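In this supplementary section we document a worked example of the pipeline. Step one takes a protein sequence of length 412 as its only input; no multiple sequence alignment statistics are reported here. Step two produces a three-dimensional model, which step three serialises into structure tokens for compact storage. The input and output of this example are shown verbatim.
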Amino acid sequence: MKKVMEIFLAVMAALGGFVDIGELVFTAQAGAVFRYSLLWVVAFATIGIILYSEICGRIAAVAKQAVFTVIKRKLGKRMAFVVWIASTIVNLATCAAEIGGIAILIKLLIGFGPWWMPIACAIVLAGSIWIMPFKWIERVFGLAGLAMLIFAVGAVAVHPDWGEVAKGMAPNVPAFENTRDMLLFGYFVVGIISSVMMPYEVYFYSSGGIEEGWKKSDVGMNRAISIIGFALGSMVAMTIVVLGAAVFAPRGIVPDTIGSAALLVATPYGKIGVILALIGMITAVAGAAVETALAGAYNFAQYFELPWGRSRPPRETPAFDAAWIIMLILGGIIVATGVDPVLIVELSVMFAVVCLPFTYYPVLSAAHNKSLMGKDRTGPLAHGLGWFYFIVVCIAAVTAPVLLVLTGMGSY
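The serialised model returned by step three reads:
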């Protein structure tokens, strides 16, 4: 029964960190611009994040090694340093975007929001991390983020064309009127893949497994958490695409703010629906902000081989604790200057994909290493599928900067 409860709570936690500001921005816009045509991309990327999170969790449980430890050992100290710098920039930018998103959503919920609201949000998040035991940090945000299921209920209530939804789940490329539309479609494909497979998710996931003391006997639990948890988060992301297609597209609305996503449930449920959506979005994005801050601290401590972990007394991990506190406060200061969080998240998502190959190659290699993993190493299917997704993220990494420029950051 205890194992079942662990899986249940961890699955709920996935909802609080998976559906972040990146998914909210890209999925709502994807539905509004291309209707149901990009649903298959969300599903495709979800299989990828399930695969790699399971692999990273397996390494954590069996070899007791977190992702950045594996990166440093596989790529070498110098190359790993470059990856650490790049991932830290992406984590900081993502954290800032999440905090800015929280401030905007709170303003929409309560009706006001002073310029210092992002800094206040950062302080509250830092306080919550400091006070709560590790195993409840993400779970609290995840359980509160269940309000995000209002989007799934709303997607059914607006009565979309389910035939078109089914077609959108199968790989497809719509007919384009011009080259511009084709490039924009490519921009969203890469953006969705990156937002679903953001590196911070596996940084946090693997380190969290070590924090909770996973061992070889927990490999099965790790698999269940990866599959069910990320699939649940993906379901919410796909329902936002469906709502964008059913609600925004017919009206010619292309959402350009994070708060626009809450309006998707206004049609079926009115003000109550919008309030529930805002609450769910706040808690889900807050969970993602916590994950990115801790992921940045984990990477820092693991690269420099410093003591780390929220499950350890602060006196033992001063540098690690300073790192996540600085990450949150800097994130709050960045958006308090007035920078648009949506602009930040679009840049961070499109550049995060550049870090993916350097993150996934080392873990893919380590997971198949018999001397490291023994009988728990990845089998032919998982290893082969892992290499397939590695090729995909390499292609996405090369094309992302080009599409970012050619589409003017996805402008319509």
